[in-house]
Design brief:
Elements lengths: L4 E6 L2 E9 L2 E6 L2 E6 L2 H25 L1
Antiparallel strand pairs: 1-2, 2-3, 3-4
Length: 65
C-alpha cells in the first residue's frame, strides 16, 4: 500500500502529494494546488514536470535581465 502523504524537493521546489481518496491524489507545488490525479505515478510525474517548468521560467527570467 502507498503512503498517504509524500513530500520531496525537485530543483528547489517543494512537491507535496497527498492521497485524498482511494483513487485520488492531490499535488501541490510550493504550497499551490496543481491538480488531482487518479494514480500516484501520474501525480509524481506532474509534480516533477511543474517543478522543472517553474525552474525553466525562473532561468529564462534571469537571462533576460
Amino acid at each position: 500500500m502507498s503512503v498517504a502523504h509524500l513530500t520531496r524537493s525537485v530543483r528547489g521546489h517543494l512537491i507535496a502529494i497527498e492521497r485524498v481518496d482511494t483513487h485520488r491524489w492531490r499535488v501541490t507545488v510550493d504550497g499551490h494546488l496543481l491538480a488531482s490525479f487518479c494514480t500516484e505515478s501520474r501525480a509524481r510525474a506532474a509534480g516533477t514536470a511543474e517543478a522543472r517548468r517553474l525552474e525553466l521560467v525562473a532561468t529564462e527570467g534571469r537571462r533576460r535581465h
